[in-house]
Design brief:
By secondary structure, the chain is α+β, with helices and mostly antiparallel strands. The chain has one domain: Aminopeptidase, CATH 3.40.630.30. The chain has seven helices and seven strands. The protein is globular.
């Protein structure tokens, strides 16, 4: 099954914060280089400039943000940070987020995609190599680079289509989740108090 990604809006900042806070201490260390405390995570999420940067996400059937990529624009390059919740790893989510970020940066006119992480972060090293990124490692840290081709009509159309698919996927999941919750509410047995209120003799 293909992984559907969607660009997040500033209105979804809180969802991104919840996703990052769900990472444990070790995952935070691998994602940010140090094990950031909760307040530092909140500060990081609050500082993201959605008008300049881009954030992409993958949502599960419960509309939880299970994977996220922050594409931060620099001077002639973009830096990418990716996180995936433990229960959803090994399914291609990280690769899908990297591919979507790659396409977006290319359409921005950026020529270099950059990732910085700890050299011991095997998942990110594997992801970088699988995407053909050049890796330079020293003193326990690693930098991965990917040179981007110029944007063209095909790359722009591909990204527009991907965003429409992402919006449709999210809307469909929202409708299915709402219907399931409604069905569960009707299926729950009435409480004693509810039964009493429905008893004609009372």
């Amino acid at each position: 099954m293909s992984i559907v990604t969607r660009e997040l809006s500033r209105a979804e900042r809180a969802e991104l914060e919840r996703h990052l806070l769900a990472l444990d201490s070790e995952d935070r260390r691998l994602r940010f280089g140090i094990a950031l405390p909760d307040q530092a995570i909140r500060d990081y999420a609050a500082r993201i400039d959605f008008s300049r940067d881009a954030v992409f996400g993958v949502f599960d059937d419960e509309l939880r943000l299970v994977g996220a990529a922050h594409l931060a624009r620099g001077d002639g390059f973009v830096e990418l940070g990716v996180s995936v919740l433990p229960a959803h790893r090994g399914r291609g989510i990280g690769g899908a987020l990297l591919a979507r970020s790659h396409m977006h940066a290319r359409n921005w006119g950026i020529r270099t995609l950059f990732m910085h992480c700890l050299a011991e972060n095997g998942a990110m090293m594997h992801l970088a190599r699988s995407q053909g990124m050049r890796i330079a490692a020293a003193s326990g840290e690693a930098d991965a680079y990917l040179e981007l081709a110029p944007a063209d009509p095909a790359s722009i159309a591909t990204e527009l289509f991907a965003q429409r698919v992402g919006l449709f996927d999210f809307a469909l999941k929202s409708q299915i989740l709402a219907a399931r919750r409604l069905a569960d509410a009707f299926a729950r047995p009435a409480s004693a108090a509810e039964k009493g209120s429905l008893d004609p003799e009372k």
